[in-house]
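hey m, so remember when u said the tokens were messed up on ur end? i reran from scratch. heres the input so u can diff it against urs
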Amino acid sequence: MTEHTAFSSSGEDIIASTIDVAPDGPSYVRSEEDFLDYYDIERTVLEIQKGDYRRIALQFPDELLHDSMPIFRSLKRHLGEGKELYVLADTSYGSCCVDEVAAQHVDADAMVHYGHACMSQTSRLPVIYVFGKKEIDTDDCTAKLLAALKESSTQRQGIMLRFDVAYAHRADKIMSRLRNALEPTTRLLYTPSPTISSPTDQTEKSSQNISNGATPKEETLNSQTENEPDFNTVLYIGGESLTLTNLLMTHSSCEVYSYDPVSKTTRLESTRVNKLLMRRYATVQKARDADVFGILVGTLGVASYLPLISHLRSVLTKAHKKSYTISVGKLNPAKLANFLEIECFVLVACPENSVIEAKEFLRPIVTPYELDIALQSEPTWTGEYILDFKKILESEPKSLPEGENEEEPEDLDQPVFSLVTGKYRHAKRYGTAQATAEHDQKESSSAIVLRNQDNAVTVMPDSAAGQFLQNRTFRGLETRIGEDAPSVLEQGRSGIARGYRDDHQS
């Protein structure tokens, strides 16, 4: 009879479980020609040959994995000999980001990214984007968007058109019909999605993707001037997604109308902007009450993520907060629950994965921009919301001239009123002489120690994790070296990780 304990399991149920993923891809494919057109096989082959790339990584999201092998075979057949292709299935972070780290594992010199993309600028490899070409009724889309605009009494300064990238192949046709129906004085602005990007200059590549069929009256707006007050209305074509949510937050002062090509419905989205911002403001207040922060690395492919992490460390240090930098891959509540000493997390990720509102997480998760607001002595928020790394870094205050020091608050022990609890609290101050003195006074034999190669014992000062551990009732198993007799060796489990066998029989 095999022994089983109440608190152990083989894990076989978890390993053998299946995850239901709704397949995505071409719904109208009736022939190989349709398949090649949907996934831009011909254009992909031309770009690979033009760049003379030898080792190419093909990145797929979970919902397109069922088409990965047909795409692989088609590319291999059209490229011929001398080209090596690698399929990247499980991305390190969000599937919308280019996984340059996984591509470097196979020494790739270019990538082809399939499916939805956040279009964050890359830092290492050239990327060929294949968004797919989902079906959309352009006549119905144009008619319903125009009807929604007519129902509103807002005076139009300008209209910005935004697409889910899977519908961008119909952008020119929709732009043309909207332009013909709108008043001649109404500006219509649109940023084409680049189909290929270089780590050095993404803006120039995007300009090459503007359709040759655009009429002279159509205007384009590059990403650098997108947030200037040239428009007060946004039209979004696509379904409910993180892209739409972030669009609402970053353009909270605009009227936002969305058209869902699947349900063929139009609605005014900006009515829920206030609720979104109020929830984020409540999260900022929780961050103000935190003294220990965890900087979560949620991307390794977006340009400027390293300078942003350095910026976060710097502002937290100046505010006398303790910070830990953690790379955990894809986030889930179980992973973050292991860091109980951390009171708030700051997520460094692409714009589409930065805002986390899941209630199952034990600690609040804020964006870098929200952290900057939370650390202000008197926080003010005008409603502006920034998710772009570059803009956050540009807002960083310049360093003081040499010889001048920033003034410290008069009283570091002054209590702070918490809007979350409705009470005053005394904030912990890390990195100050007073904090180090208090730590030395509280030191005991149970303090965390660090042994070097000479077996010398030193105390780890100013350690948030150490202080948290001392206050816990359970601190791990006792070593009891030399106090207990050695145990008798017994036969353990055998087999492979997907299904161990317990060979011990009673």
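this time it looks ok to me. The two ends are 6 Å apart (CA to CA). if urs says something different then somethings off w ur setup not the seq
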